[in-house]
Write a structure and sequence with these properties.
Elements lengths: L1 E7 L8 E4 L12 E3 L5 E3 L1 E5 L6 H17 L22 E9 L2 E9 L4 E9 L4 E10 L4 E6 L6 H4 L8 H7 L3 H7 L3 E3 L1 E2 L2 E2 L4 H13 L1 H13 L6 E10 L5 E13 L2 E6 L5 H19 L2 E4 L11 H9 L9 E5 L14 E6 L5 E5 L12 H6 L10
Parallel strand pairs: 5-18, 5-19, 11-17, 17-18
Antiparallel strand pairs: 1-2, 1-6, 3-4, 6-7, 7-8, 8-9, 9-10, 12-13, 14-15, 15-16, 19-20
Length: 394
């Protein structure tokens, strides 16, 4: 359960920005939020809006980066740079990240300080009493040219911990050695359409990847098919076919090809999904990132949620997260959006505005941090009127 995240010196963000999903007692008491076992009230959704090139994607990409680094960085090449780009005005400075989350009845904090060349500091804390205590602390020692590592019941053999690579996380490395806590944290699910260069765009690779997920998890395929039918896309079924392809070197691979099924006058017509509309294809791929977290819990981090979809689709997509029936594990979604109508679906604590100044410094703030905004304000009308800022100046 994500509680907050912070970043500093990451691409367009120079100064530190802290974004919280924790809500106060004045926010509406409805299905758009949930109470954690520790009594915190967390939002199920957070929309990031602002002009083009303001830094919206970068803001949520920071969370996608931390998730990748924590869980997958061990598998990077030995000499690969860490995919970090600081603000051009602070190119020689480190980037800093912090994520606060709730797991197993405790509050946790993960902090990372790194550059493209190495990790400088990586700490994990757990709040067992009133204060946070470190679980491990990993700090670069410029004198010895190695890491000073302290552990407090983390369970990673010290000699193995001291061999962690400069471009990999201690958590990702410990998971390879079956350290229980590392495995637990690395299993926390974050599904995203972002990578180091930005957003994955609609292509055959995305279609085949989504099809492989549905083929291996028929309950997800059935849920996806029902939603696409409910959203009136003219489909009666989605079928996934496995094909074996032979490469020039003789190696063979299985690929998965989706077909849309249409029924007219009781006659079925099967069409490769790549020939369906871009909206249908986008919904098919989007659901491959939303349904896993809805099914078992986690966080979806989605750039341009409404991409290739009608703006009215925002309502049923967000309802998947707001409804206890479709979201029994209180999954959360963080997303950027250009359809400002989303302001009619959320309350002020669920909206983050992003704006870039004349020095190319991005800043972000939650809408309820703006003084004078009332709970019953028409957020859409006031934003469109320029009352809150973060609107294109054309």
């Amino acid at each position: 359960m994500l509680k907050s995240f912070a970043l500093r010196n990451f691409q367009s963000f120079h100064e530190q920005v802290h974004i919280s999903l924790e809500l106060n007692k004045h926010t509406p008491d409805d299905n758009r939020a949930f109470e954690t076992p520790l009594g915190s009230k967390l939002s199920k959704a957070l929309a990031v809006i602002g002009p083009n090139a303001s830094g919206k994607t970068t803001l949520i990409k920071s969370l996608a980066f931390v998730s990748w680094f924590v869980c997958q960085s061990f598998h990077a090449k030995l000499d690969a740079p860490i995919p970090l780009i600081g603000h051009f005005g602070a190119a020689n400075e480190t980037s800093q990240f912090e994520v606060e989350f709730e797991m197993d009845g405790h509050d946790w904090k993960y902090r990372l300080v790194a550059s493209e060349t190495r990790v400088y500091s990586e700490h994990l804390y757990c709040k067992l009493t009133r204060a946070y205590s470190y679980v491990f602390a990993r700090d670069w020692n410029p004198t010895s040219k190695r890491y000073d590592i302290k552990q407090n019941q983390f369970g990673f053999l010290q000699k193995e911990a001291e061999r962690v690579r400069e471009n990999a996380s201690l958590l990702s490395t410990a998971a390879q050695y079956q350290v229980p806590l590392a495995l637990k944290i690395c299993s926390l699910q974050v599904c995203t359409n972002l990578y180091v260069m930005g957003r994955y765009h609609l292509d055959d690779g995305q279609m085949v990847g989504a099809s492989a997920l549905y083929f291996a998890n028929d309950h997800l395929r059935l849920a996806m098919t029902k939603l696409l039918k409910d959203w009136d896309l003219g489909l009666t079924d989605i079928r996934i076919e496995r094909k074996t392809v032979t490469h020039p070197d003789g190696d063979k691979d299985d690929i998965y090809i989706p077909f849309g099924v249409h029924q007219v006058n009781e006659i079925e017509h099967s069409i490769m999904l790549k020939y369906e509309s871009s909206g249908t294809q986008s919904a098919f791929i989007l659901l491959s990132r939303l349904l896993p977290v809805l099914n078992s819990g986690g966080v979806a981090v989605i750039d341009e949620l409404e991409s290739d979809l009608h703006p009215h689709m925002l309502v049923p997509i967000l309802d998947l997260f707001f409804s206890p029936e479709t979201n029994p594990h209180n999954a959360q979604i963080l997303f950027t959006c250009h359809s400002i109508e989303v302001l009619n679906l959320l309350h002020k604590a669920q909206v983050v505005l992003v704006e870039k100044d004349e020095n190319c410094h991005s800043n972000a703030w939650r809408l309820d941090e703006v003084k004078g905004i009332r709970a019953d304000d028409n957020l859409y009308a006031k934003y469109m009127g320029g009352s809150y800022g973060a609107i294109p100046q054309l």
